[in-house]
Design goal:
52% strand, globular, mainly beta, single chain, binds cobalt (II) ion, 1 helix, nine-stranded antiparallel β-sheet
């Protein structure tokens, strides 16, 4: 048994996306002219949290994606997803939208509230080359479909993968992702086995934590090193954090905004397809 240590700390940075939604970007944030910091296969993690409608009300009007998956987890609020396939999904507090862009999807995510708290996350998970051009897919997962498991000193909501006897609504997939939302009381510890094949990213969004004696404050993500066990201790105020894990893909990543492919040529193709209205067309 090897306990994973923090290999890299990624400080969340203020950013803005969509039509001006204020958020904190950790994975995927600009990195002073170098490639953004990622944790293969995780490309980006945005956290948004505001009680000020000016920070979110403009939402994410119609925009495309190709080559990866987007996972939106809403803690508080109400957003409406609509896409070119005709899917409509009401994303409400505690719910998840798991979208596979594949070859292409054009969607919007618009707040359905003009006041109150809007809080949640958007995670981008890469797809391997052989799945980048598969047909788009979309799953609307309600809060009551997400199981919770308790342990001494805390609880885990299991969105993807398994924790103990709790099995999340999303299972399998190319990178076999785990997505847990963990609540931990002050001074308590959380321990879990995660396969050594997986990359692990831990992101506290309330309170602070410690992993193998290294602290992580709110919005400081930790990319963990090799091992098969994760141990997290809560700080003085307790903590709530995401544990994200998945199998690395190990392929080149070329990103241009909402398109993530393996080569520049594929990106140029995606831009042409979008301009020609062919981004989402699946060959007959
Ligand atoms: Co989007």
């Amino acid at each position: 048994m090897t306990t994973r240590k923090i290999q890299q700390v990624i400080q969340g940075q203020p950013a803005s996306d969509g039509a001006g939604v204020k958020l904190i970007r950790s994975l995927g944030a600009a990195n002073h002219g170098s490639l953004p910091l990622r944790a293969d296969p995780f490309l980006m993690l945005d956290a948004f949290s505001s009680e000020n409608p000016d920070d979110y009300v403009a939402g994410f009007p119609s925009h495309p994606h190709r080559g990866f998956e987007t996972v939106t987890y809403l803690l508080d609020g109400h957003m409406l997803h609509e896409d070119h396939l005709g899917n409509k999904g009401n994303l409400k507090s505690g719910g998840v939208q798991w979208m596979t862009a594949g070859r292409g999807i054009i969607h919007s995510e618009m707040p359905q509230q003009e006041n109150g708290r809007m809080r949640g996350f958007q995670l981008w998970i890469n797809l391997p080359a052989k799945e980048k051009m598969k047909p788009a897919g979309y799953r609307d997962i309600q809060a009551n479909e997400i199981p919770s498991a308790s342990f001494p000193g805390g609880s885990v909501k299991v969105i993807a993968g398994k924790f103990d006897a709790a099995s999340g609504p999303v299972q399998g997939g190319a990178t076999e992702p785990l997505y847990w939302d963990v609540l931990l009381e002050k001074g308590k510890a959380f321990e879990a086995k995660i396969p050594a094949t997986h990359a692990v990213y831990v992101y506290p969004f309330e309170g602070s934590i410690e992993i193998e004696d290294r602290p992580l404050k709110t919005h400081q993500g930790g990319v963990l090193g090799s091992g098969d066990t994760v141990e997290v201790k809560a700080g003085a105020d307790g903590a709530r954090f995401l544990v994200l894990a998945a199998k690395p893909i190990g392929e080149p990543v070329v990103q241009y905004g909402p398109f993530v492919m393996n080569t520049r040529e594929e990106i140029e193709q995606a831009i042409r397809d979008y301009q020609n209205g062919e981004l989402t067309e699946v060959a007959a």
